[in-house]
Amino acid sequence: MTQLEISYQSEPKLINNTFEALDDSVKNGIQCRWLGRLTHAQASFGFHFNWEELANQGADRLSGYIIIKESTNSVAPQKTEVDITNTSITMMTPFSMTQPLKYVFSFEYSLTPHYKELKKVSYDELFAPSDMTDAVLVVEEKRIHVNKAFLSIHSDYFKKSKSMTSPTTTSDSFAAVSSQIYSFQMMAPLRSF
């Protein structure tokens, strides 16, 4: 699953012979620091991207491009395709020029977050009879095969209960609890089963 692209364009900056931060930006969960310097007839640029905020929302990579432009167009723009999987990464980009003059550069990026596909879980399969289940819990007339000892660890109700019917539990609330217990499987939280 992808989201709409996130684009940013910097202001033009004068590049000198000291490697320094030229621009800091934050846009829709992407932090970017642009660094650069000019040595002889070559400019070197670094981009430090931090997109942990998007990763915390389920993004597992960013793809797109970065374009570096010289303001007078005396040097052709340079476009670099990127596919970023580290949530905090620094990339270096060399930029060759004809002569060692003072140059003013800007950059832009367009990145698209890609999100992990959540595994759809069938509660009928998840709570089917197996050698690990020893009781049947009835929730809203649905028969769910469970392990009574496991449920007893999480609730005193099941320790004391002779009948495994839960008249006050809805399938929505049981699905929400199940999603928390099985969250390590990256399953989509279902409202009911």
From TrEMBL:
BTB domain span: 133-193
Cited CDD domains: BTB_POZ_ZBTB_KLHL-like
Domain of life: Eukaryota
PROSITE patterns (UniProt xref): BTB (PS50097)
Database matches in SUPFAM superfamilies: POZ domain
PANTHER family: BTB DOMAIN-CONTAINING PROTEIN-RELATED (PTHR22744:SF14), HELIX LOOP HELIX PROTEIN 21-RELATED (PTHR22744)
Protein name (record): BTB domain-containing protein
Taxonomic lineage: Eukaryota, Metazoa, Ecdysozoa, Nematoda, Chromadorea
